[in-house]
Amino acid sequence: MLKIIVCVKAVPDPKEADRLKIDPVTKSIPRLDIQLVLNPLDCHALEAAFQSRRKYGAQVTALSMGPPAAGNVLRECLALGADEGILLTDPAFAGADTYATAFTLASAIRKLGFVDLVLCGMVSSDGSTEWVGAQIAAFLDLPVVTRVSEILEDQGDVWTIKSDYENGYRIVKLKLPAVLTVTREINQPKALSFSGILKARSKQIIEWNLESLDLPAERVGLKGSPTCVSELSNLESRRAVEMLEGTLEEKVDHLIEILTNARAA
Amino acid sequence: MIDFTFSEEQELFRKAAKEFAETRIAPHVPIMEQTNRGWDEVVKELAEAEMFAVTIPEEYGGLGIGYIGRLIALEEIARISVATAMMYQVFGLGIEVFIKFGSEEQKRKYLPKFATGERLPTVAVTEPGGGSDPKGCQTSYTKEDGSYVLNGRKCFITNSHIADVQVVLANDCENSEAYSTFIVEKGMKGFKATHEEHKVGMRGCNTGEIELREVVVLADNILGGEGKGLKVAMTAIGDVGRGGMVGCSLGVQQACLEAAVKFANERVLYGKPISNLQAIQFKIAEMKIDLEAGRLLGYRAAALQDRGERSANEFAVAKYFTTEAAQKAAKMAVDIHGGYGCMEEFPVTRYLRDSFVLGPSAGTSDIMKVIISRWALT
């Protein structure tokens, strides 16, 4: 039976993104009352784990680092089908950049013992760095493939993976254990179901803190984060309207010209 | 101590129901509106999402989630399509009479199939001669050689043409004071779904008439015992029927508020969004107040129901308040849209039409006042 860890993140609901504002003094984004939800791409990572479980049998553990409120997101993972949830929560973990986050997550994975596969969403909807998956792999000294859009062959411990790039893709063979970060093209996650929610009643969420992980305080959270945010600013995007004049043919020709020039630019 | 918060699990039910309504029901709405059909597709979607299992106990193949869970599901479905929510709520009414009054044999025979949606029931009480006063029931039965022969006509029956099982209220020909409810199955000789209604709103929600001509049923088809029909019909309508209408109304209120807020923020007049105008703000405030109050009334009644207590009076209050509030909200949402509120491409026109079907269903507002005044005066 495979042992699969799916790293998930509680993010501010992307549907409420326009309510997020930058605090000009602290350069942080106050959470306000915006609900934390499961990072959308992590649903695809979970579904990839469930597909492997259906084929070969697996123990799927959802792992998250965050405030106690992130427990709701882990409960949702259990309702979606994860076998157990682990929440890494401690005031010392607060303010972590991707390096400190990956270090903490990797420490928890190491504490779990042997794992076959670590799955992550390619990117989080709030931070959007695409770094954490690769950094976890580095801390665990495991191979990593990012932007996985298809698992072509998954029998045995050598898998064949399709990995996307901006203008193409590559086919990769890799040996498990490994870390994969997945895109939304990899699968269509199943919807949350009422029976899944009821089944989650009997599943457990374990909480680990700094002491449980036996980590030095200076390696986690803000203290363990080498990243320094010097500036954050809002991007204004405004739509420009241009009315095209002339006959239908002239307007179509003009539109094609505009679109062609825009692509060239 | 009173705790007004939903549990973590109930919040997940809401999320699941909301996602279901937005992704699986919403695509059917335009077809339902245009054709006054499409019910087979949405009923299939409801079945696949386990919606019919919500109130059915686990030992009969259900989920046993209860009535707060049902109200959450109804509210979220009605927010997208109150026509779908209406069919769902009346199937729930049909299911409820089996849960509350079915014999063990009847429960084992019917409930597991209802839970999966393989078969679905409705309740047929209203007749051309009367609805809220079931004693005016003209549909009759006679006993012949250990069987029962049913004759009559029922109207305004939600799911009339699509239910596999009808629970029919009928009056004993030999004893005008005795009423019984009978399980009548689709395909029985003499049973027919006849006229289909074309309602002002809730298009795509199946409503129509049924006809019973010399329909012969066995004693096993009596639900709740011979002569107990009024109790069966009124208990189901009082607790579950009115509760269902509360869910439908809350969904319409929420939809109206969302549409009004969106339009008010986007519509710019004299250089500013109209949401800056106090006249608009006050309308939105009233819609929000009514929604908050309606939720408190509705979920309080559902909480009583989940505890196994009588909730008919509390649901009468909630039903009166929320159906009136939904009509008010739809009118205000249309008003906020100005001229656009008359254009069918804006959903508020649908909400206005739908809201007028909420009132009469499961008892008009005046009937609710009769019930509520009796409660207050005794």
What does this structure look like?
The complex is a heterodimer of chains A (265) and B (378). With 265 residues, chain A is of the alpha/beta class. Chain A has one domain: 3-Layer(aba) Sandwich (Rossmann fold). In chain A, 29% of the residues lie in helices and 25% in strands. A 9-stranded mixed beta sheet of chain A has the order 9-8-7-10-6-1-4-5-11, with helices on both faces. In chain A, helix 3 packs across helix 4. Chain A is globular, with a radius of gyration of 21 Å. Chain A starts with a strand and ends with a helix. Chain B has 3 domains: 8-120, Butyryl-Coa Dehydrogenase, subunit A, domain 1; 122-226, Beta Barrel (Butyryl-CoA Dehydrogenase, subunit A, domain 2), CATH 2.40.110; 231-377, Up-down Bundle (Butyryl-CoA Dehydrogenase, subunit A, domain 3). Helix content of chain B is 53%, strand content 17%. In chain B, strands 1, 2, 3, 4, 5, 6, 7 and 8 form an 8-stranded mixed beta sheet that branches. Chain B is globular. The mean pLDDT of chain B is 94. At the A-B interface, helix 2 and helix 5 of A face helix 1 of B.
Q: Which architecture of the largest domain in chain B would the CATH scheme give at its second level?
A: Up-down Bundle
Task: Please report the distance between the alpha carbons of the first and last residues of chain B.
Answer: 28 Å
User: Which structural category fits the helices and strands of chain A?
Assistant: alpha/beta
Shape assignment of chain B: globular
Please tell me what the overall shape of chain A is: globular
Task: Give the structure's gist in a few sentences.
The complex is a heterodimer of chains A (265) and B (378). By secondary structure, chain A is an alpha/beta fold.
Task: Detail the topology: elements first, then pairings.
The complex is a heterodimer of chains A (265) and B (378).
Chain A: E1 2-7, E2 10-12, E3 36-38, H1 40-56, E4 58-65, H2 71-80, E5 84-88, H3 98-111, E6 117-121, H4 132-140, E7 144-153, E8 158-165, E9 168-175, E10 178-182, H5 194-199, E11 205-208, H6 210-213, H7 248-264
Parallel strand pairs in A: 1-4, 1-6, 4-5, 5-11, 6-10, 7-10
Antiparallel strand pairs in A: 2-3, 7-8, 8-9
Chain B: H1 8-25, H2 29-35, H3 39-48, H4 67-80, H5 82-101, H6 104-116, E1 121-124, E2 140-144, E3 147-158, E4 165-172, E5 175-185, E6 191-196, E7 207-218, E8 222-223, H7 229-266, E9 268-269, E10 272-273, H8 278-306, H9 312-336, H10 347-358, H11 365-377
Parallel strand pairs in B: 1-4, 2-4
Antiparallel strand pairs in B: 2-3, 3-7, 4-5, 5-8, 6-7, 9-10
